[in-house]
Amino acid sequence: MAAKSVTRLLGGLVVAASLGSASLSQSIASRILVKNVAIVGGGASGAHAALRLKEDYGKSIVVIEAADHLGGHVSSYHDPTTGRDFDYGLNSFNDYGPARDIFTRLSVSVTPAAHGDLASKSVDFASGQLVNHTGPAIPDMFAALGKMYGIVKQYESLMIPSYAQFPAPSAIPADLLLSFGEFVIKYSLQAAVPQIFAITGNGLGDLLATPTLYVLQAFGPATLESFLGIAGAPFVPSSGRNAEVYEAIATRLGSNVLYSSKVVQSLRTGFGVVLWVQGGDGKYTLVLADQLVMAIEPTPENIEPFNPTASEKAVFDKFAYSTVYAGIVSHPSLPTNASLVNTVPAAAPSNYLALPKPNFTVAFTPIDPAAGLWSVGVVGNEALTSDAAKALVTSNINAMVASGVLPGVSGAKVTFKAWAVHGAMHARVSAAELKADFIRKQVALQGKTSTWWTGAAWSSTATSILWAYNDLLLPKIVAASPA
Ligand SMILES: Cc1cc2nc3c(=O)[nH]c(=O)nc-3n(C[C@H](O)[C@H](O)[C@H](O)COP(=O)(O)OP(=O)(O)OC[C@H]3O[C@@H](n4cnc5c(N)ncnc54)[C@H](O)[C@@H]3O)c2cc1C
């Protein structure tokens, strides 16, 4: 950070304090860090941005991460009985853009992700009753996915990896503004829907009501290419532990990460930012940086300590989110040889447009039934709390036992072996907002008050695409920094 910027920022600090916009003073900080770039959030986007800014652009950086590790939605469970490790959050990495190079650079060897070809039972989790539902034949599913790819590939450059080319409202392709249900009916893509819902579409909550633009962010051309064999297969670290890639980044970043830390107050200006960061020990660090990279979901709660500007609020207040939880559970009634898939009664016998609506448990999948371990995911609206999500899981199992679909075991309770709060995901707005030029207003926030935005709300939900998005964003951040 240039000395001139530090002086101006410290001047700004005094002014802010005297105007009452900063209630914590510099004197309560136990240390002051002066950096080129401060990065808030060390998940998929923040960890990658930090690595590249530090190593490829020679910038001094600090990452402020709320958790005690990097990696965001990567959730790992170590079974103390068997010694085995399981990933129950992020599943695999798309072979897209720079992803393989990042693993090579970090010396993390990779292997194709395993395909689960387990039998499944369709059950209405609310009533506990079996649903006589048959999914599409595999050739029909592939034909529908192939047809969808042929339609959506033309839109890819508008949204992936970045919205930089997104057009003015009059030129937005009509398909992107249709609800996904309308889009599916328009092109007779029904046979693609169960697969899209099972892989990433469930995270959107009400998949068919979501504007097609946002469905393509979660399951777009890149995902279709890997399904259709046009791109390489998704991969995982050969160790089987997705966390390995973020552990390798953590090693490279060293003491430049403030773990268990959050920004509690800030001052953002056109010539740098001041962040008051509170660590898990309660102590404050004052961070002065030329540029700020926000790599967290821009929820009202997350951005409140950053005093959002009127333009930022006008954009971020419009976002709606899903709330996502994932866990590993144990219960003696769960089947060892099949996964249980939540299926609404209206899906019988083969209505692929009848899907669960939030709040719902997605499925119970045996991951090590001999050790009594099943993975489970829950998707809800913004108000769904962690306790309510766990209660839903328990009530679903109880309903299946009460209906006789699962065998009853006297006194059995659900044990939550692991539980991850993935929180707000899949930021999206209505088609009406998209028509009101939302995306270009969002993009226009980049670089204002020395603040840059990355992460799923700005690109795709796939990690590999987010890394490609960073590759476009980082040169702009560097160009904006004083030499
Ligand atoms: C169950 C599940 C399975 C998934 N499977 C896949 C998959 O197989 N492949 C794939 O590519 N993607 C997958 N995803 C999606 C992918 O993980 C996300 O889209 C991606 O992680 C988003 O990256 P991000 O950088 O925007 O946010 P995140 O990775 O969520 O990172 C945000 C980081 O910021 C931290 N943080 C949050 N608030 C604050 C704060 N106020 N201050 C400081 N730090 C904060 C968080 O702890 C986190 O580390 C999955 C997601 C879930 C939930």
UniProtKB/TrEMBL annotation:
Task: Respond yes or no to whether keyword DNA damage is given for this record.
Answer: no
MF terms from GO for this chain are: oxidoreductase activity
Q: Where is the signal peptide?
A: 1-25
| InterPro entries attached to this UniProt entry | FAD/NAD-bd_sf, Zeta_carotene_desat/Oxidored
Could you tell me which SUPFAM superfamilies the record lists for this protein? FAD/NAD(P)-binding domain
Q: Which UniProt keywords apply?
A: Signal
Gene3D superfamilies reported for this sequence: 1.10.405.20, 3.30.70.1990, FAD/NAD(P)-binding domain
Q: State the name under which the record lists this protein.
A: Amine oxidase
- Provide the species name: Apodospora peruviana
Organism classification: Eukaryota, Fungi, Dikarya, Ascomycota, Pezizomycotina
